[in-house]
Batch of 2 targets.
Target 1
Amino acid sequence: MTTTKERILDASSELFRRQGLTGTGIKQVLAVAHAPFGSLYHHFPGGKDQLAAETIARAGSWYGQMVMEKLLSISDPVESIRAAFLAAGETLESTGYADACPIETIALEVASTNEQLRVACHEVFEAWVAGLAAWLEGGGVAPTDTRPLALTIISTLEGAFVLARVARSTGVLAATADAMALLVSDSISRASRG
Amino acid sequence: MTTTKERILDASSELFRRQGLTGTGIKQVLAVAHAPFGSLYHHFPGGKDQLAAETIARAGSWYGQMVMEKLLSISDPVESIRAAFLAAGETLESTGYADACPIETIALEVASTNEQLRVACHEVFEAWVAGLAAWLEGGGVAPTDTRPLALTIISTLEGAFVLARVARSTGVLAATADAMALLVSDSISRASRG
DNA sequence: GTCTATAAACCGATAGAC
DNA sequence: GTCTATCGGTTTATAGAC
């Protein structure tokens, strides 16, 4: 059973991802959620900022889990990384180049304008980096390499989303998939050599 | 001598970069530009959309040229790429993590909401990729590798900007600088061997 | 407690004074 | 042609009806 608050957060997640935070009105969120206007301030007394903060944390956690599950489903880490980038491209294409990272647009909008939301976005990315670094270490990457490599992989995915969405093409995800697979492969073979 | 139109475009470039397109009002742009309100519709009859389109093209061209000049100033392509990433980090830090890519926030905002501006952003990125690919070929990268490598480098830089701005740290630019230098180095040595 | 009606401010855009 | 005053619409937020 879905509660009103969950429906509101589902709607805000989708709209913020496609239109950004400042580009989305709370009335539009409530219309999509099929909730009356006043219910927003009942469930989110802090108004739009609180809605945004909870949306960032919830959508960020959901997206990170989804990506990690995809990585864990393939045993070879090099092919896992490649598959994750290609799968992101397929999702993008099948949603009309709308559904990429749920917090990226918000992150750029708030980075210099809203300290509280900036920190909320940072915490999501930091959790992703930590999770990916741990997974890389389990896959045979040297411990000193895991964090820089995780930062690079997530940065590249986020940047590829920007180029792919404005190009309406998955080419950049194919190119970055190969590059990231090569970096992971290099790192593992360097660790095994000593 | 700076014209009113140039002052308006300078102001819109800075404000759109920091606050995004939907987060910036045209009244705020004119206030920063020290221009009266009516002058916007004199110089930009198409209103905010025309202002945005010209801002994207102008700021995008300026930023691409600036980065390319930085790349050309160092002879070794591997160290050029590393230096460009590190320099971007220094600029970011010295501007309070505000001045990154001038069109990235706009690109994500308009990708699914404004077809004309989406294309304008795509054209800017496409010009950057073509310029960087040509530069890489001149540096010894195999012709078949130049475009995928250019796409990867620009994607990684754009993504690193997102993480760096919300983290208020240049660490991700240091990590990605090393990774991109490694990719370029690998590509050049692969070309020279085969 | 759920929801409607409205407030106060701001948006992009335009008409028209000078 | 430069600029001001204002339009209609929309924004977030709140007050209060039921």
Target 2
Amino acid sequence: MPRATGTPSPRTTPDRIPLSRERVLRTAVVLADRAGVGALGMRSLARELAVDTMSLYHHVRDKEDLLDGALDLVIDEIVLVGDRPGWRPTLRATILEARATLKRHPWAKGVIVTRTSGTPAFLRYMDSIVGLLRDAGFSLDLVHHTIHVMGSRLLGFSQDLFDDPDHPPDPRVAAIGARQLAMTWPRVGELAIAVSHEGGLGGCDVDVEFEIALDVILDGLERMRAAD
Amino acid sequence: MPRATGTPSPRTTPDRIPLSRERVLRTAVVLADRAGVGALGMRSLARELAVDTMSLYHHVRDKEDLLDGALDLVIDEIVLVGDRPGWRPTLRATILEARATLKRHPWAKGVIVTRTSGTPAFLRYMDSIVGLLRDAGFSLDLVHHTIHVMGSRLLGFSQDLFDDPDHPPDPRVAAIGARQLAMTWPRVGELAIAVSHEGGLGGCDVDVEFEIALDVILDGLERMRAAD
DNA sequence: ACCTGAACACCGTTCAAGT
DNA sequence: ACCTGAACACCGTTCAAGT
């Protein structure tokens, strides 16, 4: 016995929030946050929402659209800073804001690198950055170079080679691995031993390294701007 | 009627090269080069080799091992340059060598960003780079920073945001898209129009941009070295 | 002892039968 | 007209039956 819309059934069934694209995407983010992007399947997402798998396709074109939409929600979380004096502190703070946001959603980096076109929130983000630089006197040409020099660092992450950002290795296994490495590859091994805390470098703090690299690049931008 | 090993059948069946890990991995590279990493499945690879799917598991632990091995062959193709005067020209030429190699195997970038541990050829490559910098007087600390500043650029590619490196867009559609973009996002749109050739910037040559960014970063390294 | 085909447990998505 | 369950066409991999 179906009822008119807007009149929820008073029976034992709990009030069902109607499915919507917004609810589908928000739940996708929550699911990926909790269990990783590998757990974000159409079937598992539907189970999470307690709906039929096929009902999802009413709000989402396909899996790609689902990932685009979930990622867009994450990028939309980045709060734009606007109260800093000068382009350099503003850009630096914005990028660290983006980094903090992506840290809350560790799966997002991996999704970003598979996307081929910008989502609305990403375009909004880029528009504010381009505007910031243009207002500071950067030429179009220089803004273009800036985007290529920065690359993924604009969104707060660097594409490091062969590391698992979600699961930092146990320092003790890292130290053992570094010593084994040194047997075959003495020079990279020496470095690994140093970085794994035994050599006095005090381990590798990726956040510190990110900021160091960011400042090196910001230095470069300032010089490019002066020479432009 | 099986024959002794080494005595190929003289019948209609063509001489079968016996399956080996090497042959499996080399064929995987060829298949991915031709049809993309999406076409590199256990079943399709077996078909390419004209063997049973399950026979592959005799030479490869699983799919991850297959990807690791195929990628290792690619990285092993990078020829190390050793005849340049000074660390900066040597590093620059090595990185551009790596870029040329990855360009011959467009799928490799996408595989690299999913790997979590270094393959043998990658360690050999890194060992030569660490050695180059150490021999030039870089401290361990500075080499460590260098690796983080460089990131994926060490292997000749930058992680740009939202672009499809394999399929550069048609300039004409790009120009139309840029103009549509400018309606909603004026500042990023202005840049897109300029980059899509209409504004006089002459399009976007990713190879040129890569070298510009590389030189900016190499400048930064030289300054870090001077200050160290 | 070794190889291999069928089968398992998943995917994303189509499609037509059902209400 | 709308929803949805079964089914399709794929995966990577296990496992036991076969030679």
